[in-house]
Specification:
The chain is α+β, with helices and mostly antiparallel strands. 20% of the residues lie in helices and 17% in strands. Strands 5-6-7 form a three-stranded antiparallel sheet. It has a two-stranded antiparallel sheet with strand order 1-2.
Length: 166
């Protein structure tokens, strides 16, 4: 490997500068992923609009027919993605999913009644900082479908006031 050759991590796209005395890196110093061809596939694009093809030499001995795994029509996913984008644009608040970091969709509000919620009373305050009924905004991730609850704006302010006043 020559000293003029640039190495770019395929995982984080960081340019790897290596010491000529030590030699090339085996793993990326930024993301710690391996820099060899392990867990990498080569895709070749023939022309615009044609499906991606795997490198034939690597998968030539495979008996499995993978053609049925890919849907030729990307239209449903494109429509889904477009609609998700429009919904996200309309929202006042779009938190990031804690699992996959996609923007979440506001699905609605859930009211938790006082009878179904048992508050904790911290010793410092002497009373509960959140009591029922309160409203939680429900968000759903359009990618991994994780559901998250966030306290509504009015109940957030009420909670802050309760903590500050006591």
């Amino acid at each position: 490997m020559s000293t003029n050759e640039e190495i770019v991590c395929p995982w984080c796209q960081t340019e790897i500068v290596w010491d000529p005395e030590i030699g090339p890196e085996d793993e990326c110093p930024h993301c710690f992923n391996e820099l060899n061809d392990y867990r990498s596939i080569d895709l070749k694009v023939k022309q615009t609009g044609q499906p991606l093809r795997f490198d034939e030499q690597e998968y030539a001995d495979s008996d499995e027919d993978l053609s049925l795994a890919w849907d030729d029509s990307d239209e449903p996913l494109d429509k889904y993605g477009e609609k998700v984008q429009h919904i996200t644009d309309e929202q006042e608040e779009a938190p990031e999913c804690s699992s996959c970091h996609e923007l979440m969709l506001f699905a609605g509000a859930e009211v938790t009644s006082g009878s179904s919620f048992t508050p904790v009373i911290p010793k410092t305050l002497g009373s509960a900082f959140l009591t029922g009924p309160f409203t939680s905004n429900i968000f759903v991730c359009p990618s991994c479908f994780k559901v998250e609850k966030i306290l509504s704006d009015t109940d957030r302010l009420l909670m802050v006031e309760r903590i500050k006043s006591e």
